[in-house]
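Problem 3 from the worked examples.
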Amino acid sequence: MIFRWKSLPEREIKRRGGDNSMEVRSPTMAGGLFAMDRDYFFELGAYDLGMDIWGSENLEISFRIWMCGGVLEINTCSTIAHVYRKTFPYSSKKDVGHKNAKRLAEVWLDEYKDFFYQISPPAKDVDMGDISHRVELRQNLQCKSFRWFLDNIYPEMEVPSRDYIAHGEMRNMGQKNRCIDNLGGWKPPSRMGLYTCHGQGGSQYWQMDRKTNEIKQSQNYEYCLDAVKDDQIQLGTCHGHGGNQFWVLNTIGEIKTSSGMCLGHDNTFLNVGACTGSAEQRWQWGFVFITPQT
């Protein structure tokens, strides 16, 4: 779970009525860049002291603000400077990223925490420490559900079971220990290929959009698999207009382009070609939510 800047949704533009000086209501915020009444900060539970160093604390307090009766706003006329140190004055041998995110998920995400574990499998085995006092805090504050947050505060948020055809790793059925991987290329026009399946999400986590039939990279939803040439499948900026970024998953695991070609590989990189029925052109997704086409 990470914070990303997004363009304002239409509903927020309408709420502001064209006044660009008006505050912006934001579902979450970046860490370390907020001002809050001191008494309210502690009344709301301050920081989760079970988290280590940094990471996820900004999302945790964002969810808590909204779900427990507060409002989170960006002051468009404010000016903030954020100075980074050249080196960090602290270190840890613990997996603090997954620990912190797991604490957030277990306290605040309700049934949606299952999607977090699908995206970040290593978090399942991380010791998150005692969360009983944070669960009690949520009960005492009479906070709303995470479903309420999604429906009312961030309805644009993609929910796998609602918005995806499938998501997770894409395992080749001809070489069952190899998965589609970005091979370290996180931005266009990086070529996509095969790598040993590692079960860690990240470079091997993908989602197939139900509305556009795009296959998106998990770490940056703005980039999609793009069949720019038959022998080259690259990352491209998602455009939502079909064409080279339109894919169809069928019942035997073939992933076809809009022209009916099948996604395959040359043992290193992905390609598309005439469908042969070969296991090398069939793929097993981690999770499938709707019945594929025949």
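Problem 4, a separate protein:
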Amino acid sequence: MERQVFRIWPLSAPDIIYYLQISWEKDQDLGSGFTVTICNGEQAWSGRVSDNQITLEAKEAEMDREKYVDELRQALTTGEERVKNYSFDFFKDNDKEVFHFSYEKLLKDISFKLGSVELRKDLDSADVIKELINYVLHCNSELRDRNEHLQQENKRLSCDRNYSLKELEKYIKAKEELEQDLYSRFILVLNEKKAKIRSLQEKLKCVDEQVEFKSQSRTAVATSQETSVAEEDFDCSTDEENKGSENRTWSQPSRSANVPSQSDPIGSSLHDVIDIAPSRKRRQRYPQQNKMAETPKDSPEKRYEFVF
């Protein structure tokens, strides 16, 4: 049997404290029906809300049955925390020896009735009160045991927390020392790397200067060589021109005695020097032929001058 006990202050008697007990079958909810018991410390009243009555009240409230059952659970089983959201009333019917217990939900400006149940006075109110007291004592004992267990657990967790804080402080200290050591080593390595980089940069600068010097020297040597070659070419060309002029000077008398060909006057004049010279000496014995030979002298000389 599941049950819930808490205090209520009825609207008809707000100065009087009543104890409300809601009990229902185990492994079931309030939708299957529940029993209401109210006690003022001297007398007790009880009544039963059936499954059909819950269905009828849900229709009267124009609510879905599941939602209505959930509203009943919040109003009757959540304890005194819901007093501000719900109101209860307990009053006697004038015509009968019947009491009515009603429960309503409070909204901002209005309230609507969730349900009500008829209660009758128990013949043995002392047993009902005793049962309520036993249940309250049992709940109190369970709460104390749970509280003690939670206190022990809290103490254990506090000890673990203190131990963890101490270990954390040790780890922080070790971490800081390790960071300091690593930082100092890193500084040394960094300085060594910087010195190495500077030395490499200096070496690279020296190598660049040597390469630049060599390239400049090679350029100067190549320039001087080109200048000497140009001078040699100029000297050779001058010698060749001088030789050519001498050859032309020596070849002019022979050309004047020749009759060159139309295609190559220079080549024909060279051949003429070798072949015609003896016949020319022989021709000088005849005075008539000299006149014949003097006539072509003008033409070769004029052609030679035309060529050169």
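Solution to problem 4. Helices lie at 51-60, 65-76, 125-256, 265-283, 287-307. The mean pLDDT is 77.
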